[in-house]
Amino acid sequence: MTAAIIDGKAFAAKVRAEVAGHVARLKEEHGLQPGLAVVLVGEDPASQVYVSSKGKQTVEVGMASIEHKLPADTSEAVLLDLIGKLNADPKIHGILVQLPLPAHLNSELVINTIDPAKDVDGFHISNVGLLGTGQKSMVPCTPLGCLMMLRDHHGKLAGMNAVVVGRSNIVGKPMAQLLLGDSCTVTIAHSRTKDLAAVCRGADILVAAVGRPEMITGDMVKPGATVIDVGINRIEREGKAKLVGDVHFESAAAVAGAITPVPGGVGPMTIACLLANTLTACCRAHGLPEPA
Ligand code: NDP
């Protein structure tokens, strides 16, 4: 292996410590406590794990964590009513509706009912538009975490060729917008891309967000490139459950200059950015300067 490991776990711990410092100052100087409400509908096991992990880390940085766990057959009207109440609650600064929602609920409608100022996931159409036009917005947590790691590793990203594999609204597209905002030359690849390997080999920065275990292999990586693996795939290998990314770690690490591991890369940064966004939302709501 030649690649440097980008340690998302350690970086996320640093971000959380900074957030905790700001939260303590908000309490001391302004009597404020940022509050994050997480809404979970149904019993999807992965979502339950994410929600409990988010709740635990929210409390650890000194914020208020409010969890609403609703049954899988919750009606849209009931869910929208809850979001309306959270929008109006001055103690709540961030609202996150855990996705995916059960099929009978209209995810777009639900997300677009959240007050954009409290939309700490950055999925509301207003925030998507603000990000796309380079204006101040709430930035989706996973791509934000990736960008922070890239900036930390490289300093300035201007002029680098970035390839994002995946064009989802929650990862691929906002990731591409953020890289463009940092003046990278950005290509978005997807399932219809011709000769994906050749496209990937042109990347100084390669972000994999495909949802296919270990699909990006070493022969698709330019020597010395930085590889960010967003994928979280649960697979079974030799009779054991295992978590792997969208990148084949061993072969990619033999070629890349730097790489994020799974687990311990993008995942921890996502929750750290959620906490940072909640802090930002609280500061904006009270007209206070935003932490850098
Ligand atoms: P989606 O399924 O919404 O999107 C996957 C994208 O990958 C699509 O744009 C799809 O293309 C593209 N794709 C699928 N197969 C191929 C292929 N063979 N070649 C090229 N492109 C392909 O996934 P998400 O964006 O929601 O998530 C991506 C990954 O990131 C998943 O593993 C998910 O678990 C993980 N994730 C991790 C998070 C974290 O905190 N670390 C947070 C969110 C997601 P097309 O549009 O043409 O179908």
UniProtKB/TrEMBL annotation:
Keywords linked to the UniProt accession: Amino-acid biosynthesis, Histidine biosynthesis, Hydrolase, Methionine biosynthesis, Multifunctional enzyme, NADP, One-carbon metabolism, Oxidoreductase, Purine biosynthesis
Gene3D superfamilies assigned to the protein according to its UniProt record, in alphabetical order: Leucine Dehydrogenase, chain A, domain 1, NAD(P)-binding Rossmann-like Domain
Xref: SUPFAM superfamilies: Aminoacid dehydrogenase-like, N-terminal domain (SSF53223), NAD(P)-binding Rossmann-fold domains (SSF51735)
**In what pathway does it function?**
One-carbon metabolism; tetrahydrofolate interconversion
Please name the GO terms that the record assigns under molecular function.
methenyltetrahydrofolate cyclohydrolase activity; methylenetetrahydrofolate dehydrogenase (NADP+) activity
**Has UniProt tagged this entry with the keyword Transport?**
no
Task: Name the domain of life this protein comes from.
Answer: Bacteria
Write down the chemical reaction(s) this protein catalyses: (6R)-5,10-methenyltetrahydrofolate + H2O = (6R)-10-formyltetrahydrofolate + H(+); (6R)-5,10-methylene-5,6,7,8-tetrahydrofolate + NADP(+) = (6R)-5,10-methenyltetrahydrofolate + NADPH
Q: Which residues form the Tetrahydrofolate dehydrogenase/cyclohydrolase catalytic domain?
A: 6-121
For this protein, the Enzyme Commission number is 1.5.1.5, 3.5.4.9
Q: Which PROSITE patterns match?
A: THF_DHG_CYH_2 (PS00767)
Tetrahydrofolate dehydrogenase/cyclohydrolase NAD(P)-binding domain sequence ranges: 140-284
Q: Does the keyword GTP-binding apply?
A: no
Pfam families with a match to the protein in the record: THF_DHG_CYH (PF00763), THF_DHG_CYH_C (PF02882)
**InterPro entries xrefs:** Aminoacid_DH-like_N_sf (IPR046346), NAD(P)-bd_dom_sf (IPR036291), THF_DH/CycHdrlase (IPR000672), THF_DH/CycHdrlase_cat_dom (IPR020630), THF_DH/CycHdrlase_CS (IPR020867), THF_DH/CycHdrlase_NAD-bd_dom (IPR020631)
- Give binding positions for NADP(+): 166-168, 232
Described by its record, this protein's role is as follows: Catalyzes the oxidation of 5,10-methylenetetrahydrofolate to 5,10-methenyltetrahydrofolate and then the hydrolysis of 5,10-methenyltetrahydrofolate to 10-formyltetrahydrofolate.
**Similarity remark:** Belongs to the tetrahydrofolate dehydrogenase/cyclohydrolase family.
Please give the subunit comment from the record. Homodimer.
Protein's UniProt name: Bifunctional protein FolD
Instruction: Give the species this sequence originates from.
Output: Gemmobacter denitrificans
Taxonomic lineage per UniProt?
Bacteria, Pseudomonadati, Pseudomonadota, Alphaproteobacteria, Rhodobacterales
